[in-house]
Automatic annotation (TrEMBL):
This is DUF421 domain-containing protein. Coiled coil: none annotated. InterPro entries: DUF421 (IPR007353), UPF0702_alpha/beta_dom_sf (IPR023090). Residues 90-164 form the YetF C-terminal domain. Keywords: Cell membrane, Membrane, Transmembrane, Transmembrane helix. Belongs to the UPF0702 family.
Length: 174
């Protein structure tokens, strides 16, 4: 029966060395392709980050995968992400096809329930996000936006100054 608490020292040492080498590979790949490699800007970025984590776990924890195979997979994942990102910058069709559009969840202190439903967000979840933004008065909220990355942005102001229209450019309002 396999011991699920302890492991052979050689296996632990191999996992640590593998992790160290893979970590160095990630640093090299990040230097080649830039800091945006692990940014969470689009669904492609999100998918590649998940894939990178899966490859790292598989190589470190599974003896049947070599470091070279893992490094090649990491490089290919990031390379594909880089190429797709490049194509998305050049093609508005591809950008629309592969990216989510930010959604307006609140505007001028009013909850847009239709957009909450479309985004599959409950009112208690929305209120939790607003609380994490340290909003004191809900009437001070100019806008709450569910970003394309899944993050929630809360724009608020305690005085009556107008919000720049540029902040909501590209945001789905209805």
């Amino acid at each position: 029966m396999a011991d699920w608490i302890a492991e052979d020292f050689n296996q632990i040492l191999k996992a640590c060395i593998t992790l160290f080498i893979i970590f160095i590979m990630i640093l090299i790949i990040t230097r080649i392709f830039g800091l945006m490699t692990f940014a969470k800007m689009t669904s492609i970025d999100f998918a590649s980050t998940i894939a990178v984590g899966s490859v790292i776990a598989a190589v470190v924890l599974n003896n049947q995968h070599s470091i070279l195979k893992g490094a090649l997979c990491l490089f290919l994942i990031v390379f594909v992400q880089f190429i797709v990102s490049l194509l998305m910058r050049k093609s508005s069709f591809l950008r629309k096809l592969l990216t989510n559009k930010p959604k307006l969840l609140m505007f001028d202190g009013k909850i847009l329930y239709h957009n909450l439903d479309k985004a599959n967000i409950s009112k208690p979840d929305l209120m939790a996000r607003i609380r994490t933004a340290n909003v004191i008065d809900i009437n001070n909220i100019k806008a709450v936006v569910l970003e394309a990355t899944g993050d929630v942005s809360v724009i608020y102001n305690s005085d009556d100054s107008e919000m720049s229209d540029l902040l909501l450019e590209g945001v789905e309002k209805t």
